[in-house]
Amino acid sequence: FGCFSYDPGFTITASCKSKITYIDGDRGILLYRGYPIEQLAENCDFIEVAYLLLQGELPNATQFRDFNLEISDRAIIHEALRKFFDGFHYDAHPMAMLVGVVGSLAAFYHKEMNVKDPQHRWICATRMIGKISTIAAASYRHSIGRPFVYPRMDLNYCENFLNMMFSRSSQTYIDQDHYIDPFLVKALNLLFILHADHEQNASTSTVRLAGSTGANPYACVAAGIAALWGPAHGGANEAVLNMLAQIGCAENVPKYIAKAKDVNDPFRLMGFGHRVYKNFDPRATIIRKTCHELLSKFQKNDPLFELALVLEEHALKDEYFIERKLYPNVDFYSGIIYKALNIPVDMFTVMFAIARTAGWVSHWLEMQEEQPGMPIGRPRQLYLGPQRRDFIPINQR
Ligand code: CMC
Questions:
Q1: What positions does UniProt annotate as the active site of this protein (predicted)?
Q2: Between the chain's N and C termini, which has fewer beta carbons within 10 Å?
């Protein structure tokens, strides 16, 4: 078999060195560049956090203003890129459109791109953060057959995204008086911060692996988006809402808990369990609190949130979940907030991708800047196929 160690899920293998995000899974600690996630979620704007992830330090007021301007300035997309959407069927999954259109950025920005030049790398990173929300909103507009809404420089990142999603051609969603409730913008900002980075998760590792070959960075991020889509990763937020709808009511909860415990049943409680967090996911704690605040502020009695609380309560008391240290993760409650923001369920993972772009490009920058001579990522395998054998002509097989 060769003399390799076998660790298919990277459970005990560090794939890189990084200074960006720290997780202590046993104590439920998450730090971005040393700052606790709770403090950043409470006090920051998402773009401030994006700057922190990219640069290593929080911006001062001037740096923040300039960075905001730079990101807004890069939000516009090429008209030809916008036309890509015309080629998609109206009911194409928005994640499929996102993978395709983000990947096509490589076709727009390839010739002049020199990954060895720090200025080029910076432009590429900020361009990705600027354009991802425009592309994401365009995929939604395409799916509902409404015209594309251009990004606005006078709105902050989250306001601008909501405006591009929901504005009607005759009326902007956010006017001078902030037509949209700032509380909703704050909730979106919070989710974006919580999703912005999470060290070497599957999608970030994909971006790094693709990046290790020297591939075009936009293509690397498209690879990360593809990895995020799966239900074991970012696709879980969409799967949670679908699961809650399937469970339907509190009376059915014990039946579904039993299904999740049955080794012969592939069903899993979506939004439960985490490779690293074995006590609690600090992001889930913050989101759960925000769900309560949001729904009570708008006096919305979301039956799915009530159901999620019942499901959580049952699971946390169950031996199976206790023994395996399975707790709600970030995706268990995030969909309830997205639903309150009128974001359609199939856009949930796209929302995750918008936020995680800040993390992906930070990791891509880090690997280019700090490990210039780094080797190509090239895992080995344990070969289980046939031993050497001789070719047999087709008429003798
Ligand atoms: N429901 C029921 N059983 C579960 C679940 C679950 N959600 N998660 C893990 N288990 C069981 C699993 O069957 C196994 O049992 P046993 O030891 O008897 O074989 C044990 O717990 C360990 O599970 P694992 O699959 O070996 O753990 P992992 O670290 O490889 O997987 C996970 C982590 C997140 C993929 C997994 O918990 C899962 O599939 N959860 C549901 C999907 C989900 O919510 N994903 C979002 C993750 S957080 C956000 C993100 O990463 O994007």
A1: 274, 331
A2: C
SS3 state at 152 = coil
- Please write the tens of the pLDDT for every residue from 145-196: 999 999 999 899 999 999 999 987 656 666 655 567 788 899 999 999 999 9
CA of 323 to the centre of ligand 1 (A): 13
Q: Whose CA is nearest to atom 37 of ligand 1?
A: 273
Q: Does the beta carbon of 322 sit less than 6 angstroms from any atom of ligand 1? A: no
Q: What digits encode the pLDDT tens for the residues 336-389? A: 889 888 899 999 999 999 999 999 999 999 999 877 678 899 999 999 999 999
Amino acid type, 78:
H
110 is catalytic: no
Among 274, 281, 346, 363, the active-site one is 274
User: Are the C-beta atoms of 84 and 101 separated by less than 8 Å?
Assistant: yes
C-alpha pair distances (Å), 298 with each of 98, 301, 340, 341: 32, 9, 9, 11
| Residue owning the nearest CA to atom 20 of ligand 1 | 324
- The kind and range of the H/E element at 32 are strand 29-32
Ligand 1 centroid distance, CA of 281 (Å): 13
Q: Is the ipTM of this complex over 0.90?
A: yes
Buried/exposed code over 349-378 (b: 16+ C-beta within 10 A; e: otherwise):
bbbbbbbbbbbbbbbbbbbbeeeeeeeebe
